[in-house]
Amino acid sequence: MTNATRLVAFTLASEPGNERLALARVAESVAGLGLPAARLERLKTAVAEATMNAIEHGNGNRAEIPVEVEVTQNGDQITVAITDQGGIEAPANNQGNEEPDLLKKLEGAQAPRGWGLFLIRNMVDAMDVTTDGQRHTILLTMRTEGGST
Amino acid sequence: MTSTCEATTRTVPGAAVIELAGEVDGSAATVLTAAYEQAIKASDGTAQTVVLDFAAVDYINSTGIALIVSVLARARAERRKVVASGLSPHYREIFDITRLSDFIELFPDLDRAVSQLAN
Fold first, then answer.
1. Which strands sit side by side in the sheet containing B15-24, from one edge to the other?
2. What chain A residue is nearest to B72 in terms of C-alpha separation?
3. A149 belongs to a structural domain
4. Residues of A with CB below 8 A from B102's CB?
5. How many structural domains comprise chain B?
6. Which A residues 96-115 touch B at CB under 8 Å?
7. Which CATH number characterizes residue B25's domain?
């Protein structure tokens, strides 16, 4: 990533609930960058959901395996990279096969859960997933300007 | 994980009200289920509408959305309507994106939800 400035980098233990720590630290790191309030709320939700996925599906709720979070800025673009050590299958791939359908869920044809990736995709300007086999990274991109809201 | 969700229930004519506070995530399942059952029981089973008030809720995640889906599915099976009040603009947007707002009428606050139900 050329000309990108690292705003913060930290790790979290893979324990349920730690996504709240991630969203708080990410929000703190982008304060003052001009991200409108509504877009900040969207980014916070996306960060929380991606971190939950990394904790639960990537690292299997094993506290000793860290989730890595890095926030960078490149011009008007903020990117949050969230990395787990999930092994062979990327969590973003093995959950995303079926689009959540509320009516199906209400009728019992789909499980009530399964909203995480759907929310992430709808919250940020771009979502990308990279993997090197062991490590999986989800990249969440949000522009400070030029977004729809 | 300890739940930080709290629920207070009461009845108004024709409706059971569940006022939620704290975080609505997967750990809130027991609290929300118990509150639903208590609220319906307090109405002697006559409540046609369940009001979920989110005014004191500061966090809802995808597992919380799943809980709300479960409550809605149960209420529909029992032929009850679900309405919601007090959602922040961000969570109203999430209710729109997930289409929950197609099935749950949204009110700005609890007073307006209750007064609308009384009419």
1. B6-12, B15-24, B49-60, B81-85, B105-107
2. A106
3. no
4. 102
5. 1
6. 100, 102-103, 105-106, 108, 111-115
7. 3.30.750.24
Has residue B40 been placed in a domain? yes
Residue A135: is it exposed, middle or buried by C-beta count within 10 angstroms (0-12/13-18/19+)? middle
Q: Domain of residue B43: give its range.
A: 6-113
| A148 found inside a domain | no
CATH at A123:
3.30.565.10
Q: Which helix (H) or strand (E) holds B92?
A: helix B89-97
Q: Which residues of B touch A39 (CB under 8 A)?
A: none
CA distances from B50 to A83, A145, B78, B80 (A): 41, 40, 11, 7
Mean pLDDT of successive 10-residue stretches along chain A, which has 149 residues: 87 95 97 94 97 94 96 96 78 61 94 94 96 93 74
Asked if residue B119 belongs to a domain, the reply is: no
pLDDT digits (tens, 9 = 90+) for B65-113: 999 999 999 999 999 999 999 999 999 999 999 999 999 999 999 999 9
Q: Has residue B49 got a pLDDT over 90?
A: yes
- The reply to whether B88 falls in a domain is yes
Residue range A103-132, pLDDT digits in tens: 999 999 999 999 999 999 999 999 999 998
| Residue A18 vs residues A12, A48, A51, A134, B32: alpha-carbon distances, Å | 7, 9, 8, 22, 22
